[in-house]
Write a structure and sequence with these properties.
seven-stranded mixed β-sheet, single chain, four-stranded antiparallel β-sheet, mainly beta
């Protein structure tokens, strides 16, 4: 089993940056493809970014391409989401998730483990 804990959320002005971290414990972190999702009030949880076990392949929601960067450090059992040029529509609870199915899969049901989420609020 894998335990995931997100951190780094907060309140930021539009155009600003935040870096989210997700620390993993439990079974071998490097075996898992990792993803970041977000859920805004009244909306479904949506895929934001994904990364392969090696970090060599990354995947992004179209609306965040060029602004967000996902990365991982397998030695530290941590995955990151660097978010730049934030917009008010990026406001949501952000979750990290672990999958053994496929890197970059956008489907919630294909991620076996989830963190508790961290709030990101972008003020305009």
């Amino acid at each position: 089993q894998v335990q995931l804990v997100e951190s780094g959320g907060g309140l930021v002005q539009a155009g600003g940056s935040l870096r989210l971290s997700c620390a993993a414990s439990g079974r071998t972190f490097s075996r898992y493809r990792m993803g970041w999702f977000r859920q805004a009030p009244g909306k479904e949880r949506e895929f934001v970014a994904g990364i392969s076990w090696s970090g060599g392949q990354t995947y992004y929601l179209d609306s965040v391409k060029g602004r967000f960067t996902i990365s991982r450090d397998n030695a530290k059992n941590t995955v990151y989401l660097q978010m730049n040029s934030l917009k008010s529509e990026d406001t949501a609870v952000y979750y990290c998730a672990a999958s053994t199915v496929a890197a970059g899969t956008p489907w919630v049901g294909e991620y076996e483990y989830w963190g508790q989420g961290t709030q990101v609020t972008v003020s305009s």
